[in-house]
Amino acid sequence: MTNRFDLSGKVALVTGGSRGLGREMVLAFAENGADVVIASRKLDSCEELAAEVTKSFPGRRALPIACHVGDWGQVEALAEAAYAEFGRVDVLVNNAGMSPVYDHVSNVTEALYDKVLDVNLKGPFRLTSVVGTRMAAGEGGSIIMVSSTASQHPGANVIPYAAAKAGVNAMTVGFARHFAPKVRVNCIVPGPFLTDISKAWDMDDFNERAATTIPLQRGGEPQEIVGAALYFASNASSYTTGALLTVAGGSGI
């Protein structure tokens, strides 16, 4: 049976691609045949993963690029660099995000608020606009947004982040309509994953709460995002667009 998740001959661009969920997506795309563009703020981290990709998957190409997705100009430069190197982008994953901690909403500064909205909402909007337009003018493609269950069940300590991710959910549907029929736009909505960010958690407290609030009673392992990412990136989801897929161990149901 033909591998429905085959990405041979494709090029995938992943923001926030050097660690966490983004890293797992990059490795999965490369393993399934795609060349990859790895973007994050730290070039050395991108270069390290690019070297791992080319070593682990002979024949695969990997382009590391430093990019702060909250900066409109850097986002445009990222798209230009990807097309200059590969001549195409078939899969775009808007994975970069941030959620700084604050002690009280009254202490959220304008600078912090703008930073959260820039990274989580403005950057994905501009990158999707630029790449999606080129996809639609070419052979089409797949765009994957990465949101958060906070967009649907916001906690008191993540209000700006939750608002930005709710905007990502809305953009998913809007862009799916705008770029149809050649470009599919879908969204992964992750719950709590045990990535680098979880190192700051009180894990005893988290595990205690997970036992009663998450049906699968645990946080997700980073590699458990791969199934959803490969589904949306590949022809396996050829009749799916404008969809939000929650990957959260059942939390929120």
What features would you describe in this structure?
- The chain has about 250 residues and is of the alpha/beta class.
- It has a single domain (about 10-245), classed as Rossmann fold (3-Layer(aba) Sandwich).
- Helices cover about 45% and strands about 15% of the residues.
- It is built from seven helices and seven strands, in the order βαβαβαβαβαβααβ.
- It has helices at about 20-30, 45-55, 70-85, 110-135, 160-180, 205-215, 225-235; strands at about 10-15, 35-40, 60-65, 90-95, 140-145, 185-190, 245.
- A seven-stranded parallel beta sheet has the order 3-2-1-4-5-6-7, with helices on both faces.
- Helix 5 (about 160-180) links the parallel strand 5 and strand 6.
- Helix 3 (about 70-85) packs parallel to helix 4.
- The two termini are about 35 Å apart.
- The model has no long low-confidence stretch (mean pLDDT about 95).
Shape: globular
CATH architecture annotation name: 3-Layer(aba) Sandwich
Overall pLDDT: 95
What's the end-to-end separation, in Å? 35 Å
Briefly note the structural class of the backbone: alpha/beta
Q: Can you write the helix and strand succession as a string?
A: EHEHEHEHEHEHHE
Strand arrangement, major sheet: 3-2-1-4-5-6-7
List the total number of helices.
7
CATH class: Alpha Beta
